[in-house]
Write a structure and sequence with these properties.
562 residues; mainly alpha; Na+/H+ antiporter like fold; Rossmann fold; six-stranded parallel β-sheet
Length: 562
């Protein structure tokens, strides 16, 4: 009993510190991540000593990183990545290689890190924070814009690099010149990927059975099981646990249950990742930071400057407009949460001095905290640059909308076909597993999900800005619109009703309603959606004519593109 209490009290202190810090600091524009870090510094061994570092605390922190990598894997859609292949394959390598080279050169000239450790340290510092960057974009309502797509592609590339760095460090090859060690690590990684792929294939029928049986608790447990099993596989191979979690998430990213899994695991990820940041603060030696405060601030400033410039330069070389490139530099100039893991691991193995690790870790945290404050400055500077250069590229950020479709019947798939024709991104969600399977077999982007789950919309990396309500009764439509408007007031909602009487209460809830007493061709909702998205009327009628003439309308291809 006494030992259990000794484990519970530190956890209670950690949770209380996290709640207090994240409840207060965001009111002053300070990100929650910085709040977690501050909480860890205060309760950690170097300040109050209220919570000692223990195996239990470190295990919880490790699970935070595991869930983060699994969630990143779930968003690692190969189809979406292919659409942004230029940003992923060109801008990503340019930015990371260029930033790594500059930081490595600075570390080498200053002689502050062992020669064998310069590359992994520089590579870690060249990464940007997925959590901070995407949250900054979401907070500013810029999800779904071309800039957000470019930022996401770059962050995914960096996440892949982080996984590779973690694998190499866990295999103890970072300080080795032996090609044999590297080959062995890559061989283990290949076997782990194969094992995870097999298990992923075996688990998908299990998810189908659980959803069909309506076993909600079992679905949550199965999702947790996937995370633990895939992470354990790479752990058994001597590689990092997060690597396996990433692979597991990536394999499930193309499944129809991906969106339900994201929703179920979001609370676990948020809580455990918060504990991870708290433990980072706990591991920081406050006496070292205070003794080298000037150096820490200088490193943070240099990191923001170097990374911001090189991110903008890589974006510009990729063909992105000057104004958007500048904003990307301000958005992605911070350090990454993966730098914490890599620097901590290297310090523990004596690859770098603990003092250097403490200074670099604190510098990374400062850059993460400053990012939300620097983003508005990037907006002002990019606006001035766009005006001076008459850069029209930046004006197209809102041209493409991200649309969420409730339902996967013929009516909703007609809407999806119309959206595809005019370059708008969409996702169709339906609780009917057979309807989703049919839609996916036709090439549509569809998944199993129920919008009555209030957290589902919030689980997307790219928050939808338009919702099409279909496949529901008038009463259910009212309840759904009311619920979503409470959580997402800026969400544009479009729906269809049979008569004007039904339309009045829905309009009162803020929905855009089209009245269609009879719609045998399932075109009305699609046409009204295109009109709402400001598609030219001539183009809409041309699409409608092709829709009537083409018996293969339901195929999710570009056949109807204007």
């Amino acid at each position: 009993m006494h030992e259990t209490l000794n484990m519970m009290l530190p956890l209670a202190v950690l949770l209380a510190a996290g709640v207090i810090s994240t409840a207060l600091l965001p009111r002053f524009g300070i990100p929650a991540i910085f709040g977690y870090f501050c909480a860890g510094v205060v309760v950690g061994p170097s300040v109050t000593g209220w919570v000692p570092m223990s195996d239990t605390v470190e295990l919880l922190a490790e699970f935070g990183v595991i869930f983060l990598l699994f969630d990143i894997g779930l968003h690692f859609s190969l189809k979406q990545l292919w659409a942004a292949k230029k940003d992923f394959l060109t801008m990503g390598p340019l930015q990371w290689a260029g930033t790594t080279a500059v930081i490595a050169g600075a570390l080498g000239l200053l002689g502050i890190a062992p020669v064998t450790s310069i590359l992994p340290v520089a590579g870690a510092l060249a990464l940007s924070s997925t959590a901070v960057a995407l949250q900054t974009l979401n907070d500013r309502g810029e999800q779904g814009t071309p800039m957000a797509h470019s930022a996401t592609a770059l962050l995914i590339f960096q996440d892949v690099v982080a996984v590779i760095l973690l694998a190499l460090i866990s295999a103890d090859t970072a300080n080795s010149d032996s090609a044999t060690s590297l080959t062995l690590a890559l061989g283990k990684a290949a076997l782990s990927i194969a094992a995870v792929a097999v298990i992923g294939r075996l688990l998908r029928p299990g998810f189908a059975w659980i959803v069909g049986a309506g076993l909600d608790e079992a679905f949550t447990a199965a999702a947790l099981l996937v995370v633990v099993v895939t992470a354990s596989l790479t752990g058994l191979a001597g590689l990092s646990l997060p690597l396996g979690a990433f692979l597991g998430g990536m394999l499930l990213s193309e499944s129809e249950y991906c969106y339900m899994i994201k929703t179920e695991l979001k609370p676990f990820r948020g809580l455990l990742l918060g504990l991870f940041f708290i433990t980072v603060g706990m591991s920081l030696d406050a006496s070292v930071v205070s003794a080298y405060l000037g150096i820490t601030l200088a490193v943070a400033g240099a990191l923001l400057l170097v990374k911001g410039v090189l991110v903008a330069l890589a974006a510009r070389l990729t063909g992105i407009s000057a104004a958007v490139s500048l904003r990307l530099g301000f958005t992605l100039g911070q350090g990454s949460e993966f730098a914490f893991v890599i620097l901590t691991a290297m310090a523990a193995s004596d690859a770098i001095a603990p003092t250097l690790a403490a200074i670099l870790t604190a510098s990374v945290v400062i850059t993460m905290a400053l990012t939300p404050a620097l983003a508005p400055l990037g907006d002002r500077l990019s606006a001035r640059l766009a005006a001076r250069l008459l850069d029209d590229d930046s004006a197209g950020d809102e041209a493409s909308r991200h649309v969420l479709i409730n339902g996967a019947s013929d009516t909703e798939l007609t809407v999806a076909s119309a959206l595809t024709a005019f370059g708008h991104r969409y996702l169709a969600l339906d609780s009917d597993r057979k309807a989703v399977a049919r839609a996916r077999s036709l090439g549509f982007s569809a998944g199993v999900g129920n919008l009555n789950d209030a957290q589902l919309v919030e689980s997307f990396a790219e928050t939808p800005d338009v919702l099409i309500v279909g496949r529901t009764t008038h009463k259910d439509a009212q309840a759904l619109i009311r619920r979503l408007k409470q959580r997402r007031p800026n969400l544009d909602i479009i729906t269809r009703v049979a008569d004007e009487t039904d339309a009045v209460p829905l309009r009162g809830l803020g929905a855009v309603v089209c009245v269609a007493p009879k719609d045998p061709d399932n075109r009305t909702l699609a046409i009204e959606t295109l009109r709402y998205l400001n598609v030219a009327e001539d183009d809409i009628q041309a699409w409608a004519q092709r829709f009537d003439d083409n018996p293969q309308w339901e195929k999710a291809d570009k056949a109807h593109a204007v």
